[in-house]
Amino acid sequence: MSDNAEKRLTPHDILSVHAPIMCWPINSENGDPRKETSFNRFWILQTPTAIVGFSVICPHAGCFVSGWNVERRLLVCPCHGSAYDVDHNGQVMDGPAPSPLPYVHIEEEEGFLRIASAISRPVGAHASRAD
């Protein structure tokens, strides 16, 4: 579900923009957005090979990954500068993050997008805080 439009996303929604769209997954049983925790929130975008959803939670200190570097196609955390390459499974390109940004594979089902895999790694901060 799109974060600002309160509607289910389609492949066209993703392919028609050249930036990530923030969204929440929906409960498959009742159709409600799963907004219980920010750990459920994702950036959805098209990579060269697939539509992928990346966690909005930085693995370094748990900050909100909110920046988008258009030229380098990186999601960026403003807290300590970690930057993640969305075309290479969220690989850390800059900053102190200890691991790639967690992601899920997205696929189309009955015209809408749905999560098609388990999350690649646990979501949340994993580094000790010395800063």
From TrEMBL:
Lineage top rank: taxon: Bacteria
Alphabetically ordered keywords of this record: 2Fe-2S, Disulfide bond, Iron, Iron-sulfur, Metal-binding
One Pfam family matching this protein: Rieske
Rieske domain boundaries: 20-115
Cofactors required: [2Fe-2S] cluster
InterPro entries: Rieske_2Fe-2S (IPR017941), Rieske_2Fe-2S_sf (IPR036922), Rieske_Fe-S_prot (IPR014349), Rieske_Fe-S_prot_C (IPR005805)
SUPFAM superfamilies: ISP domain
PANTHER family assigned: CYTOCHROME B-C1 COMPLEX SUBUNIT RIESKE, MITOCHONDRIAL
Name the UniProt record assigns to this protein: Rieske (2Fe-2S) protein
Organism annotation: Acetobacter sacchari
